[in-house]
Amino acid sequence: MTVEQSSAGGSLGAPPGCPAHVPPEQFRHFDYIRDIETATTPYDGYLQYRGEKPFWSDVDGGFWVLTDAAQVRDCFLDPETFSNRNIGLGYTAFPRTMIPDQLDPPEHTKYRKLLLPYFPPTAARALEDDIRAIARAEIAAWAGRGKVEFVGQFAGRFPQIVFLQHLLHFPVEEMETFLQWEHDMVRHPRDPEDAKRSMFALLDYLTNVVAERAAHPIENDMISGLLQSEIEGRPVTQDEVIDMSFLLFLAGLDTVTSALSMSFYFMAQQPKLRDRLVNEPEVIAEAIEELLRYVSFVNTIRTANRDIDFHGAPMRAGDRVLPSSVLAARDPNEHDQPDQIDFDRRAKRSLAFGVGIHRCLGSHLARVELEVAFHELHQVMRDYRLDPSRDILFHGAGILGCDQLPLLFTPPG
Amino acid sequence: MRVSISDKCQGHARCLALAPEVFYIDDGGYGAVHGDGEFPDDKSELIQKALMNCPENAIRARRSVAS
Prior knowledge:
heterodimer; A: six-stranded mixed beta sheet; three-stranded antiparallel beta sheet; 16 helices; about 45% helix; disordered N terminus; B: alpha+beta; two-stranded antiparallel sheet
């Protein structure tokens, strides 16, 4: 026992590793990677804590986990108390600051304003035909086979192609390399050497691209546009654009993959809902909102700026906090029957894209990608189900998701 | 019915998806209300739905006082 450990009730009640300011009854050993991967679904790794007060996990240096929608909302809506300076539990290893996600106001505000005009619903909708062409080409590659490894052959390729071709204008031929970098940093961050190597490779790549586009701008290209814009009356620097591009790369390449694979994992087991998506395509847009709630998979990090008693958690300045979108999405005080997927739910006020000043910038693009994918997929694999002969693999960490999802279906006649 | 959007808006665009006759997204990426913000009662169901689905609670709607 060290002096930092709790002395509440003498030294008896305090579990080893429990910091002095954490009440022993709020101390848990929650592994946000392993517990997720070994649970029946990744969600069970979080849902076992539903109804508890915020608790402290001793994993990876320790952090608080927020356990309901009110806590998560209050945290996201108070950026003065909860800083974004660190958005992961250390594994992305980025030695610089991702703009604007790792900034707090007032710095955050000016960069956010710069980026917002690139991501309105109209811009996303304008890409719909291109997105549909990409989805159809991807589906056509396996539609006749009656089976698909849904992550490797669709969910882990389609949004990436859209993002590389239409947002970043990076060569799609190098997608495998980009995905390797992304996965090393975001999916399996337990090997810090892999994460570090990929982080530097990406940083080198972005540095070259940004220099190249500063010299030779591409038309209708976000990176070129950002390089020509101003902030507080001075030109945006190449370094700033690199730090924005790094964030866009990380955020754009894995999130829709999770939304698709998790949604299809559940829909493959609920034939009535699946049939409705097939037979009533007009329900798809709102069904996606409900599924985004149900499969909420982002578990980002905040850092307390001051000592605060937050919903029963005695936090100290510097404590890291994980506002779990999973526990917020399944909070019965926020949603009636939260474990039911109900496309007709009247209020789908989910926290899937976050709330407050860091609300996901790419949400409108994500929605169009999901809508197009749902429409196209449900026309081709109308009776999809899990393939009982093959394993389904999940991953935990900051973005929960599926590594492998084998599905069977009757090929279109 | 008088509808407005407060500065809590972060541009989720749920209002646009549910009630495009009432809401749009402005050039800065934030929600806005068409015209003078005054809408007939037959839009109140749509407006109510948008209000319930706003993640930021940024929409305000109140019954207009008859003149």
